[in-house]
Amino acid sequence: MSVEENIALVRRHFDTLASGDIEASAACYAPDALNHGRPTPPEVMHRTLRSLYTLHERETIEDVIAVGDKVVIRTTCHGVHAGTPEFAPIMGGFLHDVPPTHKEYTVQRIHIFEVRDGKLITHWANRDDLGTAQQLGFTLNPPQ
User: Fold this and answer.
1) For strand 58-67 and strand 38-39, is the pairing parallel, antiparallel, or unpaired?
2) Which of 28, 58, 71, 138 has its CA 20 to 30 A from that of 115?
């Protein structure tokens, strides 16, 4: 695929997730995709994306850098803690089993994708979980 097609695939992933079309967003990923280095089969990807959608997150793509099969984007993420993610690893797990605060948050994120045969095969993200937690009124304590 061309660099332009790879960028379009990443944009489609974010657009379909923002619209609540979890099936279409998940379909952007290969069945053997890795998310943060962990195997993420389709059923896990669906749970992950549903949990993100529960937070009413919308990411606006600010910058795109793409070379070959890699696409790096910087986003502004705006969310509302209006639900409880069903999947513990979401956002580092700090929102799991936490009742909704209905507070809003806005943070910057960087995502790195690798594309193979028209599908997202690898995803890494650098998120501002501390900034999110602070805006929601939480204190993150290190494990004892």
Assistant:
1) unpaired
2) 58
